[in-house]
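input
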Amino acid sequence: MPNGSKAAAATGVQLYTSPGCPDCAAVRRLLLERGIAFEERSVTAPGVADEAKRRYGVRVAPITVIGDTVLYGTFAIQRPELERLLALHSQVFDTR
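output
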């Protein structure tokens, strides 16, 4: 389900998720709360997990891609770097 895919393309934010994944939901919630546009891709869709593995070296969600930075692992692992990146790029991501 794309969330503002044109804006997501401009800012380069992608979120790879899987259904029922609490860490995926937590990353999604953080991005939505911050008003960050992102493209969401399910690793259960045909070919998406293989694409993630080929591009980023992992195929287990959540995978968060912000520009050239790839984050993976639990929300707790990703959160500090997510917070740092979102703070650094707040003007780029500002949707107001």
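quick obs: The two ends are 22 Å apart (CA to CA).
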